[in-house]
Amino acid sequence: MGYFPFFVELSGSAGLIVGGGAVAVRKVEKLLPYGPRLTVVAPELNEALRSIPGLQLERRVFAPGDLEGMAFVIAATGDTETNHEVARLCRERSIPVNVVDDKQACTFLFPALVKRGELSVGISTGGSSPTAAVWLKEEIEELLPDGLEDILSWLESMRPELKAWVPESARRAALFRELFCAGLAAGRPLTREETERVIAE
Q1: The pLDDT value given to residue 201
Q2: pLDDT, tens digit (0-9, with 9 covering 90-100), for 23-78
Q3: Which of 56, 101, 108, 117 could form an SS bridge with 149, CB 3.0 to 4.6 Å?
Q4: For residues 126 and 4, is the Cβ–Cβ distance under 8 A?
Q5: Are 148 and 185 in contact (CB under 8 A)?
Q6: What CA–CA distance (Å, rounded) separates 160 from 175?
Q7: ∠128-45-133 over CA atoms, to 5°?
Q8: What are the domain boundaries of the chain?
Q9: What is 14-109's CATH number?
Q10: Which of 71, 122, 77 is nearest to 102 (CA)?
């Protein structure tokens, strides 16, 4: 089976995490920077979960009605029977579900993530070796230059103006490459004067 790496807009989407232990904490911490509205349901809730702002915490057992309106679900209870029941119900409702440490029960996998501002790199080995995915994540983190987050934000801010200046898409793409490379060489966003110089060349 092949896992295609979709990048999905999660901001404002409703997500459910069934389970309240350390694994649930790790999933919450990975997801929150992307802006979903998360509900955690479990009879016992880890202290770390209780300290994370913005979560809706439900201290009770999972009920099928908890799936109502959810864009995605994570089953992280530590109990195989419960996790499989959550997965079964999600499949019936066509809700994407991740079951921790059970690739066959998942309809999506959690990648190892590198996040710098708007840059996200997701790494998956299709469940064959999470250790290898984490190793590659660490290698990528070492390769990313300082200032990259600011450079990407600057390029995003330039996009409307550059579209107005350069209507031809191939030329505009070439200019974005030149600006990106110039920003990398400088280790920072270019000044207005430097930007205009690159565009004029």
Answers
A1: 75
A2: 999 999 999 999 999 999 999 999 999 999 999 999 999 999 999 999 999 999 98
A3: 117
A4: no
A5: no
A6: 13
A7: 20
A8: 14-109, 111-144, 148-200
A9: 3.40.50.720
A10: 77
